[in-house]
What we know:
By secondary structure, the protein is mostly helical. Helix content is about 70%, strand content about 0%. Helix 1 (about 5-25) packs across helix 4, helix 4 packs parallel to helix 8 (about 120-145) and helix 5 runs antiparallel to helix 12 (about 195-205).
Amino acid sequence: xxxxxxxxxxxxxxxxxxxxxxxxxxxxxxxxxxxxxxxxxxxxxxxxxxxxxxxxxxxxxxxxxxxxxxxxxxxxxxxxxxxxxxxxxxxxxxxxxxxxxxxxxxxxxxxxxxxxxxxxxxxxxxxxxxxxxxxxxxxxxxxxxxxxxxxxxxxxxxxxxxxxxxxxxxxxxxxxxxxxxxxxxxxxxxxxxxxxxxxxxxxxx
Length: 205
């Protein structure tokens, strides 16, 4: 048996995550199975098990990658600006999440099940990416809002990060949901990811 190199293992792992991402564009978490993912990659299902033992582990890897992508956006905000006002901070972070709808969609899922059905090593890797987001957010506030002390910043983080779990369901409403809201007589005003995020941040800051 030919031993795979680290690069080959990483490449196959990426292919698996890419297949999951592709399916997640048109299917729900519940509908996607390891069999469905296996049909999207050019190798056998046993090969998938070399990298991931459960569907939840693949989604967790996708989740981690989405945080890494957002982290790159946060680094750009931090490094490419010398000074930002509260409106500009709110605008830039809102823009960054507008480009990360998949992250928001994953946040709206039942993360407890995803984490419970993943091995500790993969969960730790995910938590590192998540923790990096919190740290970068903290650094942005510390740099551009010098009037806020550590307690102020911590309070903003503990409001905004839980708030992110609810952005997707309010911004990405299906036609079925719209029809049901109309039938129920709910006077709901629809807002975009940008509007929801900006309005929250400007009030927090």
